[in-house]
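Consortium newsletter contribution from the modelling node. Members have asked for a concrete example of what our holo predictions look like. Here is one, prepared for the guanosine-5'-triphosphate complex that several groups have been discussing at recent meetings.
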Amino acid sequence: MENVAPSSSNSPSKAGKVDDINMEGLSLHEGIRDWPVCIIVLGMAGSGKTTFTRSLIEHAQAQFNPYVVNLDPACREVPYAAHIDIRDTVNYKEVMKQYQLGPNGGIVTALNMFTTKMPKFTELVRRAGERGHKWCIIDTPGQIEVFTWSASGNIITEGLATMFPTIIVYVMDVVRSACPTTFMSNMLYACSILYKTRLPFLVALNKIDLKDCGFIQDWMTDFEVYQDALEQEQSFVNNLTRTMSLTLDTFYENLVTCGVSAKTGVGYAKLLQHMLDCVAEYERDYKPVYEKMRLQRLAEQLAPAATAAHIDEAGTAVPMGLDLSEPTNQDDNSVFLMAPSLVPQQMNADETELELDSKGKVEEQNFQSFVQTHMSAQQSKRDKQQRNQETKS
Ligand SMILES: Nc1nc2c(ncn2[C@@H]2O[C@H](COP(=O)(O)OP(=O)(O)OP(=O)(O)O)[C@@H](O)[C@H]2O)c(=O)[nH]1
Ligand SMILES: [Mg+2]
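And here is the predicted structure:
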């Protein structure tokens, strides 16, 4: 295809790497583009993200001609032809060796290094859109927290969402979630990602060829059914789980789920429909927010001197590059292991106080409105139950 090279993987291109791309027209001056729609595939280790990605490519090929990105630096091989493969840009084993890191540290650092190429990455995605790729599917590392809680995961997600319509598909293993407490952990993860990423969110209940996903949908819609399942399980975390499930009630109400089998392809027609709904949701509800963020970024870009002063406070620039053994050029080959949003702002004491005060107020208001919504949801549930009982008697 084009600018990205194959590695040990079966990438379709022979031409180069993310690093080889010449920057052309990608700029924050333009508004959010219509294409490609970026689909970030997340999920716990072994939930089936990579198999899901392969199957999604097959089902979307004719209509959306997906552009495919593998962001898992530690996988041995991927069962699809990736247009961009992080393994072509960063050698994860070499990173571990050079920085004396364990596997997880190696993955985080590899992702950080890839993130330093973010402008080139987004430029490739933009060009893919111009060539008729309507979707860009992004497979992520096995250790979900590496992507969801690292600065680089944040930068990639926000970076994409400020330039292209972006949605999250959370892959959940139905078989492993048959245990109510595991289900709850999975849901807490999903919930935290939903609130953290602020993007349209779809849960793909995967592996339905092995187990029907109806029980999960029942647990999410009927609190008592979940409580009954929990009763069967002898576990000391039951009380906590029970309380958590009450809290997650509001989250379930707006959560879209769809049963699929990444292995057999069952459920994908419905899944594609849900994904299109998510794209419409991005356009309607999220785009204005990201548009605002884009303008903010643009303003920051136009004030380079001020930013440089802030970067000084963020720590030391770590020299990084493609070939770790080569001496690197500090100017274009360095990365700060801190998200731009975390770089401390220089403010005088009054401004800081004001800022904290208004932040505190917003958080308090958010919390109050969360409690209100939760309480009214609970109340309407109780009313409904009472009405049902009255009808029965
Ligand atoms: N039966 C069945 N097995 C599946 C399905 N999806 C994935 N698997 C199997 O689940 C295992 C893990 O699948 P992967 O696609 O590697 O999962 P992953 O989330 O990418 O794994 P990591 O990247 O290591 O976190 C493999 O053995 C797959 O064959 C499915 O729908 N049905
Ligand atoms: Mg995988």
